[in-house]
Design goal:
alpha/beta, two-stranded antiparallel ribbon, about 35% helix
Length: about 180
């Protein structure tokens, strides 16, 4: 935490300093022109918007409550008027909660944790997880993609889903910080 707080918030391209976290939580809409939003949550939202997934009034469940992904994506979904539930390792009857979700953001950090019996037909899933498949050793997400994909209106793959856009968001945040620092934005 001491290292993170030593960063100048104006140069915090990951959006992790207390100043930028506070700025995110003070926002009531999706105007992030004065601070950086953490890259992975920004990318998850970009995917939902690019796929024309309506968020207003939708029931979203974020599985994971990390400061890097779970909590920021929760706030970004709330800014779009989604009704958001944050689930975690102590959530009672997580499968039933997930079956009620229109949108699931999986950021729990457990390989193939979300299975077919936890997802309703027509759900939208953004899988943020990066794990090693215990059977093959290959990269996989928090969602068992092969089991769940046929049920979903949309699902992001791992690898190749949120990851590449996270890199793009990092570059955008870097450019935005530069422009703000030089008073051109």
């Amino acid at each position: 935490e001491h290292v993170v707080e030593a960063l100048n918030p104006q140069k915090d391209v990951d959006g992790v300093t207390n100043t930028n976290v506070a700025n995110l939580w003070k926002q009531t809409r999706s105007d992030h022109s004065k601070f950086c939003v953490p890259c992975t949550p920004r990318s998850a939202m970009r995917i939902l918007k690019a796929a024309n997934i309506p968020l207003d009034g939708k029931n979203a469940v974020v599985v994971g409550r990390s400061n890097i992904v779970g909590l920021p994506v929760t706030k970004l979904l709330m800014n779009e008027n989604a009704t958001v539930t944050v689930a975690h390792s102590h959530t009672k009857d997580l499968p039933a909660l997930l079956r009620s979700a229109d949108i699931i953001v999986a950021a729990i950090g457990k390989a193939k944790f979300i299975t077919k019996d936890m997802v309703r037909q027509g759900a939208v899933i953004v899988d943020v997880g990066i794990n090693a498949d215990p059977e093959t050793g290959k990269m996989c997400g928090d969602v068992d993609f092969q089991q769940v994909a046929d049920l979903c209106e949309m699902i992001t793959p791992v690898p190749g889903g949120v990851g590449p856009l996270t890199i793009c968001s990092l570059m955008e945040n870097t450019i935005d910080c530069y422009l703000r620092t030089h008073n051109t934005k």
